[in-house]
Each structure stands twice: as C-alpha cells, then as structure tokens.
Design a protein that fits this description.
By secondary structure, this protein is an alpha/beta fold. The protein has helices at about 60-65, 80-90, 105-120, 135-150, 160-170, 190, 200-210, 225-235, 270-275, 300-320, 325-330, and strands at about 15, 35, 45, 50, 70-75, 100-105, 125-130, 155-160, 175-180, 215-220, 240, 255-260, 260-265, 290-295, 335. Helix 2 (about 80-90) links the parallel strand 5 and strand 6 (about 100-105). The protein binds guanosine-5'-monophosphate. Guanosine-5'-monophosphate binds near residues 219, 221, 222, 244 and 269. Pfam families: IMPDH.
Length: about 350
Amino acid sequence: MHIESDIKLGFKDVLFRPKRSTLQSRSEVDIRRSFTFKHAEGEWTGVPVIAANMDTVGTFEMAAALAEHEMLTAVHKHYSIEQWSEFLGAQDEKIYQHIMVSTGTSEREFDKLSTLMNDFPSLRFICIDVANGYQQSFVTFISRVRAAFPSKVIVAGNVVTGEMSEELILAGADIVKVGIGPGSVCTTRVKTGVGYPQLSAIIECADAAHGLGGQIVGDGGCTCAGDVSKAFGGGADFVMLGGMLAGHDESGGERVEKESKTFVAFYGMSSDTAMNKHNGGVAKYRASEGKTVMLPYRGPVENTVQDILGGVRSTCTYVGARKLKELTKRTTFIRVNEQENRVYN
Ligand code: 5GP
C-alpha cells in the first residue's frame, strides 16, 4: 500500500489571484481558441466548451443552439442513423465543426460509428467514452478507431493521471477526456471510493498531454462559470459540461409539473433511469451508478450560455488575459478555505 501525501485540489479549493491588467472591458477578451491536433488533420477554431454526451444534455437541439456560439456538443450515442441523417440534413455545413459523435467500445458501436462516419464524411470529431479509461481493451479500441479514421479528431477518456493521458495519446487520441467521479450526477466516488480532485487531475493531465502535442478536456465537476474558468486556468484546452447545461428547452429529460412549477429530469448515464430507458444496454457504461435528479426548468439555454461565457471573459479581464489561450499563463491560484459568502443562501 502506498499513500501520496501531496495535496490534490478541486475547484472549491482555489480562487484566482487578480493581476494588473490593461483590459478595459470583458468584450475585449477573445474566448475562441485554435488548435491543430497530434494525429488528426486540419485546424479547429471555436469556443472550447462542450456539452456532455449525456442524453439529457448532448441533444441535437443543444448542438444547434451551442453552434451559434461556436461551442461544441458531444452528441449522445443513442440517436439512430436515421435521426442523425434527419438532423444533419436540416443543418448547414457549419454544424460539422461543432459536433462530436459519441461511441462506446462494443463491436455494435464500432459498426454504427463506421456507418455514420462513412455516410457523413464531414463529421470531424469522435468521442470515445468509457467510465474507466485504464483498461487495456480501451487503449486497443482507440488504436483501432485511429487506424479506421486517420484524419478525424479523436477525444478519448476518462482518465485522471498524466501517464495514462500519455498512453491514450500515443494510442491515437488527440484529446484526452479527464475526470473520474466529479460529475454532478455521478456516484463513482461513493460507490467505489475511486476518484481524483478535478482541478489537480486537469493540471497534471494537461501537463502530460501538452508535452506530447495533445490536448485535454476537463470533464465534470463545474458548478458555475467560475469553475469553468478555473478548469481553463488549470490548463484544460476544452471544458465539458453536464449539469450546467441540463434543465433547458434544448436538454432532453422528461418534464414534470409539481405545484405549478416545472421540473426536468437529469440523470447520469449509468443511473437506473438511463439503463431502463436504453434497455439495459448501457449497464456497463459507467463503473458505478449515477443519480437521477429533478431540476427546476430553466428556459432556453441561451441565457445560461451568456452567463458562462460572460463569466469566463470576466475572469480573463481580472487576470489580464486578452485571449483565453493566455489564461493558464496568467493564472495564479490561491488556496482557500472559503469560496462565496453564503449568508443569504
Ligand atoms: P457535470 O458537468 O454534470 O458535473 O459532469 C458531467 C460528466 O459526468 C459527464 O460528461 C460524464 O463524464 C460524467 N457522467 C455522466 N453520467 C454519469 C454517471 O452515470 N456516472 C458517472 N460516474 N459519471 C457520469
């Protein structure tokens, strides 16, 4: 048995230290980024915030709404080829820059992915998602997808350590998905005792991935715009959001009226709700179960997007980053014992 005693941090453990800045207003901040990839062809430019590939978040409706802001959506894997065809047929070419096709690692899922990529060659991003990215079979699957689609951008995870990030990149991933257990409807840490504080996972995996010319996406655990900024400040190239984008018009999830208020179901992809819905087909999707919660209905996602992007822009002005790209370089985190004043909460 071994104990690592250096402190690992979550978003709630830090704040940004403000820095002198010549920026006058948050409107001067450019939160778009351009990336070239370790393996895939071409360059991508956009706002590197991704809607999670959960069936209550990564919907076609969400993809269409977020594309307007140049953001990405990892479209969940439960749409049929016919539904994909109908959706893509109704969009303009630009949508291809803003959607990822999600897949698991089964034979059936590989076949479906192949059909989709062959039918719609403009699709650019593949998101290979498993609960536990430490399995050798997962690494082998990434190499197989890389061999089949040499020019596509492959996002793969989830892992939380530098050495495994390197292994996924060497196996063919361009972008490593980082996060085990921080998700808002995730119970992995409770059920298994496994996890890693998300900010430290981001810092360590980003360092490893960048050393090889790869990128990372910080996936899970963001509860507010400040957390999204902290993920970027820690070195995340992309940030993936579930709960923060749930409960809107564009989100999936059943709606319920209760005492004249509307609530929307939001659930983990390995929760009972998801498993029942998808015929037990996703039972192995996550190492442990997820929760189901009812969120107050939040209207169109537009307002939430403005809040999140406005918050990130504002962080950049506080630390003097004219571009999101500069945020990590301009970041000094201070460790704290308190975040906001909760006297009126
Ligand atoms: P959030 O932004 O809601 O904090 O986290 C979203 C992330 O939680 C997703 O992108 C995914 O990685 C993770 N997640 C989604 N469903 C489940 C689940 O049922 N169990 C676990 N362990 N993680 C989940």
